């Protein structure tokens, strides 16, 4: 069934869906599927039941203190080395996911610095997702797993945000505005942290 004007954000339960600039309406279909869209009740098929409305939110620049931004650099470097993932990428994902708040919890239950869903945390053997070191190691391990599954950074980040299945289904970044914004944001942050870490390495080598 085609829903006129709907963004097409039909996702399985448990997928983290941060809001975008528009309001996000969550519906349940007759078959139990969950629909995320920017279209209000009047523009969605009547067979869908409205569950919630989330007010728009965007990836606006946030000023972070150096102490907050850099407090986990040692853990990030160790995890990145253990799993063969670029430290700047790990740091960028943490920034985008939780703003370096180890106690962060999303509305769908994603937890900690790298916003691990409980089932993902169990798979990654993260006993306490609010333990900064355990969360970072688990999330970095997951990034390494995705890097082995996909050939481009865009696909890796899209899979981290929207799930492997959606990336395969659409052959790249899914047409979800939230996921597209997420990929762009993390790539921007990665470049920022590449420069920061390069400067720090240059100073340390003097």
What does this structure look like?
A four-stranded antiparallel beta sheet has the order 1-3-2-4, with no helix packed on it. With 206 residues, it is of the alpha+beta class. The chain has helices at 66-70, 73-83, 87-98, 118-123, 132-149, 153-162, 164-170, 177-204; strands spanning 9-11, 24-28, 34-37, 49-54. The model is unreliable at 1-21 and 56-61 (pLDDT under 50). The chain folds into two domains: 9-54, no CATH class; 66-204, Lysozyme (Orthogonal Bundle), CATH 1.10.530.10. The longest helix has 28 residues, at 177-204. The protein is built from eight helices and four strands.
Strand order of the largest sheet: 1-3-2-4
Describe the sheet with the most strands. 4 strands, antiparallel
How many structural domains are formed by the residues?
A: 2
The number of helical segments is 8
Would you state the CATH class of the largest domain? Mainly Alpha
Strand content: 5-15%
How far is it from the N-terminal to the C-terminal residue, by CA?
64 Å
Overall average residue pLDDT: 82
Give me the CATH fold name of the largest domain.
Lysozyme
Q: Percent range for helical residues?
A: 40-55%
């Amino acid at each position: 069934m085609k829903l006129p004007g709907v963004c097409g954000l039909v996702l399985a339960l448990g997928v983290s869906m941060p809001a975008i600039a528009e309001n996000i309406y969550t519906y349940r279909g007759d078959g139990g599927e969950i629909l995320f869209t920017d279209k209000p009740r009047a523009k969605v098929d009547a067979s869908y039941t409205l569950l919630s409305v989330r007010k728009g939110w965007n990836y606006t620049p946030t000023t972070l203190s150096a102490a907050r931004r850099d407090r986990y650099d040692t853990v990030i470097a160790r995890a990145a080395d253990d799993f063969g993932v670029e430290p700047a990428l790990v740091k960028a994902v943490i920034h985008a996911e939780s703003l370096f708040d180890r106690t962060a919890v999303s509305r769908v239950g994603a937890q900690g610095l790298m916003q691990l869903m409980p089932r993902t945390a169990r798979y990654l053997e993260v006993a306490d997702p609010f333990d900064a070191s355990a969360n970072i190691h688990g999330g970095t391990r997951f990034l390494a797993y995705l890097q082995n599954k996909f050939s481009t950074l865009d696909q890796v980040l899209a899979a981290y945000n929207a799930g492997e299945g959606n990336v395969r289904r659409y052959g790249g970044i899914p047409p979800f505005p939230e996921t597209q914004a997420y990929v762009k944001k993390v790539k921007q942050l990665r470049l920022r942290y590449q420069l920061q870490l390069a400067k720090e390495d240059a100073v340390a080598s003097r």
